[in-house]
Structure formats: structure tokens, C-alpha cells
Amino acid sequence: MLASTNEKIAAIADHVGIDDPTYFSKLFRQNEGMTPIEYRHLAKRTTK
């Protein structure tokens, strides 16, 4: 979802049931090794 939309991180966190976007970013970084924003930028660069 991060790679396919420009929706704000807070809205994406809410979609997956996490009320706190900061907590979502922390969990995302622990699992993916980068922040949601870094992931989005990387995904956009690699799909061009």
C-alpha cells in the first residue's frame, strides 16, 4: 500500500488498525529496516 498510494502514513496506519502513526513507523522500521517514507521513496525509484 505504501508504494501504490500517496496517502499519508497516518491514514495507512489507521487502515491497518494502529491509531498512532509514530508507533506504526517504529514497528515498520523494526520489520523492514527502514521508515515508511524511506520505503515509499525506494519503491518509487525502483518502479520507474
Give a concise summary.
This is HTH araC/xylS-type domain-containing protein. By secondary structure, the protein is mostly helical.
Question: How would you characterize this protein structure?
Answer:
Helices cover 62% and strands 0% of the residues. With 48 residues, the chain is mostly helical. It has one domain (9-46). Helix 1 packs across helix 2 (21-32). It is globular and about 30 Å long. The mean pLDDT is 92.
- The number of helical runs is 3
Mean pLDDT, nearest integer? Answer: 92
Order of helices and strands: HHH
Structural class of the helix and strand makeup? mainly alpha
Largest sheet: none
Binned, the helix content reads: 55-70%
Distance between the termini: 17 Å
The parts where pLDDT drops under 50 for at least 5 residues are none
Gyration radius (Cα, Å) is 10 Å
Strand content: under 5%
Q: Give the tally of structural domains.
A: 1
Cα shape: globular
User: Based on DSSP secondary structure assignment, what is the total number of beta strands?
Assistant: 0
Keywords: DNA-binding, Transcription, Transcription regulation
GO molecular function: DNA-binding transcription factor activity; sequence-specific DNA binding
Domain HTH araC/xylS-type: 1-42
Pfam families: HTH_AraC
Write the layout of secondary structure elements.
Blueprint: H1 9-15, H2 21-32, H3 36-46
Task: Please tag this protein with its features.
mainly alpha; 62% helix; 48 residues; single chain; 3 helices
